[in-house]
Amino acid sequence: MEERNQTHVTEFILLGLSDQGEQQSLLFWLFLSTYLVTITGNLLMILAIITDSCLHTPMYFFLSNLSFSDICFTSTTVPKMLLNIQTQSKVITYEGCLSQMYFFMLFGVLDNILLTVMAYDRFVAICQPLHYMVIMNPKFCGFLLLVCWLLSIFNSLLHDLLILRLSFCTDLEIYHFFCEVKQVIQLACSDTFLNDLGTYLASGFLGGFPLTVILSSYSRIVTSILRISSVRGKYKAFSTCGSHLSVVSLFYGTSLGVYLSSAAAQNSRESTIASVMYTVVTPMLNPFIYGLRNRDIKQGLRKLFSRETFSAYRILCFRMKT
């Protein structure tokens, strides 16, 4: 046992998605293009919401924060994976692994809680429309956003502190393309009871409670919509929450799929591939879901592009004159 123990860890080995050398180039360009699309799409969403005064409402306030969170979420894992592929290295330092786990959990949980707050926002808008602006006032929206950040920070800090108390064996290979908390815990030689307990409690509270709030909100939303007599009114009410419901289904569907695949898979490589869905694909698809299904976002993007095109034209004309 002494030979396997290691009191001071300096680095971990990220085995990534594939051991085949010929697949590395394909993976690099695939994830690079996906990452660039994710950054561009979410930045356009944020800029459209900021520049269009018609989008300065609670719903789009939380949507802009969700886009920011998605940018940070995917940026905690993909750039390091691209760097490792490019340099033909699988090493990540101990400090880098801790930092990656911290920010990955922070923005992952932030996404989850923001989706919950957005579900509550839709509930108030549809079920209590006359009191919407009174309930969802700027101070309350700011308070909800602060709670989202504080819960996310506390959860990430707690997990990182629990990881710091562990001692690790000489086998430091992680079957993932980033430092996933459960797999890092499995490498420990010391007692992991507190880490497992913290993981289960956090998953139950930050996973189960938000999902319960979302399901409860939408059950009451559906009940309220069914009471509307006109078909046009029902369609309008459904359209206001359709984009959010699609994003929620995608987020929880992929997360649940990863959980079930990791529980059933004999090879941890399978769960690693499945986790690409919620770590890379979901943040990329969110802007398209809102952009394609939301008329206000489409209009905001048109204004953004027309404004940028006009400004570029004026600059070009000025340079030609001078």
User: Which parts are unreliable, with pLDDT below 50 for 5 consecutive residues or more?
Assistant: 1-6
| Alpha-beta classification | mainly alpha
| Helix fraction bin | over 70%
Dominant shape: globular
Report the end-to-end length measured between terminal Cα atoms. Answer: 77 Å
Provide mean pLDDT, rounded.
84
Per DSSP, what share of the residues sits in E-state strands of 2 or more residues?
under 5%
Order of helices and strands: EEHHHEHHHEEHHHHHH
Report what the structure shows:
The chain has 322 residues and is mainly α. It is 78% helix and 4% strand. It is built from twelve helices and five strands. It has helices at 21-51, 58-75, 78-87, 94-127, 132-135, 138-164, 181-186, 193-226, 231-264, 268-274, 276-293, 295-321; strands at 5-6, 11-14, 91-93, 168-169, 173-174. The strands form two sheets. It has a three-stranded mixed sheet. It has a two-stranded antiparallel ribbon with strand order 1-4. The longest helix is centred in the middle third of the chain and has 34 residues, at 94-127. It is globular and about 65 Å long. It starts with a strand and ends with a helix.
